[in-house]
Write a structure and sequence with these properties.
three-stranded antiparallel β-sheet, alpha+beta
Length: 193
């Protein structure tokens, strides 16, 4: 009886190919929701940014102060920036051919995660020039320079595009390996909008 029951179960699975597809699809979706995959394609970049600032005469008082000497500074700042595939939105598609054991994974394009991490501790003063009667730059002014650097980095479209391309290039083999481990013979990973 046990042998007949096992033959019946095997034949039922063969009769219902949707059960096999559903199992494969469920395992893919389960894996995609796991914390292990949340960091796939997430890369961290360290960017060096030069920030230059000088006193500009914006008021009468600034003009008077500038008459006694200018203040100029050139800073080298380090910024840490993360980019990767945001799977938290669930904005991806899976197309499975269970007979061919093939899968197409359509992912959203990588994105730069904000905020950028810039620390006042990672600032190096390259050049500082001030007149004899002028005061040093304050911590508040240095923080404003960091904010200026962050704004300039986020406005640099070429830099962001390069980082996104690198994040996608790093993510693609990771997803390909994960899906191969789930038993797929043909794996295609694509990035769509």
């Amino acid at each position: 009886i046990l042998a007949l029951l096992s033959i019946f179960c095997v034949s039922c699975n063969e009769i219902n190919p949707h059960a096999k597809k559903a199992t494969l699809e469920n395992s893919v979706y389960e894996k995609m929701r796991s914390n292990d995959v949340a960091e796939f394609g997430t890369v961290e970049y360290t960017i060096t940014k030069l920030v230059q600032s000088k006193d500009d005469a914006k008021s009468v008082w600034s003009s008077i102060k500038n008459a006694f000497g200018n203040r100029k500074v050139l800073l080298r700042c380090k910024a840490k920036m993360k980019a990767g595939i945001d799977l938290g939105t669930g904005n991806y598609r899976v197309t499975i051919d269970s007979k061919a054991k093939s899968i197409i994974l359509s992912l959203p394009h990588a994105k730069v995660f904000t905020p950028i991490d810039m620390s006042i501790n990672d600032v190096e003063i390259m050049v500082q020039d001030k007149g004899v009667l002028r005061s040093d730059f304050t911590i508040e002014e240095y923080i404003a320079f960091l904010q200026l650097g962050q704004t300039q980095i986020m406005a640099d479209k070429e830099l962001k595009n390069n980082i996104i391309k690198q994040a996608e290039a790093a993510a693609e083999p990771m997803f390909r390996a994960m899906l191969s481990q789930l038993g797929f013979k043909a794996v295609k990973v694509e990035f769509t909008t």
